[in-house]
Amino acid sequence: MKLFDDVMNWRGTVRRLRESNDRGASAIEWVVITAVLVIAVSVVAAIVLNIVRERSSQLEDCANSATSGQEC
Q1: Residues 6+ apart with CB under 8 A from 72
Q2: How confident is the model at residue 19 (pLDDT cuts 50, 70, 90)?
Q3: DSSP conformational letter for 72
Q4: 3-state secondary structure 1-60
Q5: Domain spans of the chain?
Q6: CA–CA separation, 36 vs 28, rounded Å?
Q7: Which residues contact 65 (CB under 8 A, 6 or more apart)?
Q8: CA distance readout (Å), 24 to 19, 29, 72
Q9: Which one, of 45, 72, 68, 47, lies nearest residue 58 by Cα?
Q10: Do 71 and 65 form a contact (C-beta atoms < 8 A)?
Q11: Whole-prediction pTM
């Protein structure tokens, strides 16, 4: 009988573990994934913004030098 009781207790434990909600852990995983994506997008946006500002400055310098008769 002891073996039977142990098996039944084990099956009950496994069933309870399968039925438990892991929604809290899943929500935390989504928050972490979202945070990583937001950081990645922010880094890419900062790089693009830096490139645009640099090119804009180069174009402005070129336009200013062209009005004074110099080539870019």
Answers
A1: 61, 62, 65, 66
A2: low
A3: -
A4: CHHHHHHHHHHHHHHHHHHCCCHHHHHHHHHHHHHHHHHHHHHHHHHHHHHHHHHHHHHH
A5: 22-72
A6: 12
A7: 71, 72
A8: 14, 9, 60
A9: 72
A10: yes
A11: 0.56
CB 57 within 8 A of CB 63: no
pLDDT per residue as tens digits for the range 24-71: 667 788 899 999 999 999 999 999 999 999 999 999 988 888 777 777
**Amino acid at the residue 38:** V
User: Cα(67)–Cα(62) distance, rounded to whole angstroms?
Assistant: 9
7: pLDDT strictly greater than 60: no
